[in-house]
Design brief:
Layout lengths: L34 E18 L12 H4 L10 E7 L6 H6 L4 H16 L11 E9 L2 E8 L6 E10 L10 E9 L2 E9 L8 H15 L19 E7 L8 H9 L3 H5 L3 H7 L46 E6 L3 E8 L10 E13 L2
Parallel strand pairs: 1-2, 7-8
Antiparallel strand pairs: 1-11, 2-4, 3-4, 5-6, 6-7, 8-9, 10-11
Length: about 375
């Protein structure tokens, strides 16, 4: 599904053979590429973020630092994995033709580059992040950014797209996945948009989408025996996106608990958590504690949830839900922060997660 074309600041085929640019020391890593007499434990932080932008093209002045750099500090992560859904309207022309909209991808990547590489106003220190891969399938965009001094340690970068929307194969729903090795550890990142719908039983469609993505996503075989080709073969896996799971409660009850900010009570009826506990989907995956308001559904450019403004008439009601999620699989990842941004461009709020990872490396840092 989708073409093999993607956008990147660098040539992935040469990543493991050459230094991308002069290394920049940071607050927590001292760079010196020297062979070590024994493997070293090193630590990196990953930022994983997801945002359904509702088919809205971002204005040139959109500032996404609030989402990527809380309090406008220096980028707190070494790796940024950013997933978007509905970067184009999901109309018949975009779904059937399946052509990549390079202009809209470049617009989002330009905003990301500006947010990550903008100097910290407190100390005027500038980081240098590079896009190692950016891939679109209809409305889904997955863009991965790495601090430039780490690019030389990345190898075997590849991408896989799975469509599971109309007729079970079109790209209005589905996933874009990226995998690579960083030092001796393999990573896989999955950005998905699963089946929508708030009716009883719709969660089974989402479960089926997830199962299909896990079974159909395949990466090219590499040069080594038993080379990882499936999502769960990798050491660390992070899945992010608009998973579209809703809340098993009447709308009036959901609205009442929402007004009282009773997140724990609402989450007892969250479809994804129920499906996980019952073993229907994502067996062995982790999410952690949610301490933020539902990310969906808002009036655009508003702080009001859809249906909460009595002055506006609606043909349909959309009960709020935690549609936008970030989960992970594998050992060696530790959650540092899980919350949401407050950008109001669409009817979804972006979500973000910081994860610490411990790696083994044959190089001194």
């Amino acid at each position: 599904m989708g073409s093999n074309n993607f956008i990147a600041d660098i040539n992935p085929d040469s990543m493991e053979m050459e230094t991308m640019m002069e290394s920049r020391p940071s607050d927590n890593i001292n760079i010196s590429k020297k062979n070590s007499t024994a493997p070293q434990n090193i630590y990196h932080q990953i930022f994983a973020g997801s945002w359904n932008v509702g088919g809205v093209s971002p204005p040139d002045v959109l500032d996404i630092q609030e989402w990527l750099r809380p309090n406008h500090i220096n980028p707190p992560a070494n790796i940024y994995v950013l997933g978007f859904q509905e970067i184009v309207p999901l109309n018949a022309a975009n779904i059937v033709v399946r052509s990549e909209n390079r202009k809209i991808c470049e617009k989002w990547n330009s905003l990301i580059r500006a947010a990550l590489n903008d100097p910290d106003p407190k100390n005027n220190i500038t980081q240098d992040f590079r896009c190692i891969i950016s891939k679109q399938m209809v409305g889904i965009l997955l863009s991965v950014w790495v601090r430039s001094d780490l690019c030389q340690y990345i190898r075997q970068l590849s991408v896989s797209c799975v469509g599971c929307g109309l007729m079970g194969c079109l790209g209005n729903k589905g996933s874009v996945s990226v995998r690579f090795w960083l030092h001796e550890t393999s990573f896989c990142f999955v950005c998905s948009h699963l089946a929508s719908g708030g009716k009883e039983g719709d969660q089974r469609l989402r479960n089926a989408n997830a199962a299909g993505i896990l079974s159909r996503t395949t990466f090219p075989p590499g040069p080594f025996p038993n080379f990882t080709t499936k999502i769960l073969d990798h050491d660390r896996v992070i899945w992010l996106g608009d998973l579209n799971y809703r809340i098993y409660l009447p709308d009036a009850t959901t609205q009442y608990l929402l007004e009282k900010q009773k997140w724990n009570l609402l989450l007892e009826y969250d479809q994804l958590k129920v499906e996980l506990m019952e073993g229907h989907v994502f067996e062995g995956w982790h999410e952690g504690v949610i301490n933020f308001a539902p990310s969906y559904k808002y009036y655009k450019n508003s702080e009001l949830y859809f249906g909460c403004d009595e002055k506006r008439k609606h043909n349909k009601r959309r009960a709020p839900a935690w549609c936008d999620r970030i989960i992970w699989f594998g050992k060696g990842l530790k959650q540092n922060q899980y919350d949401r941004g407050e950008l109001k461009l669409s009817d979804h709020r972006p979500v973000r997660r910081f994860l610490w990872q411990k790696l083994r490396s044959n190089f001194h840092y």
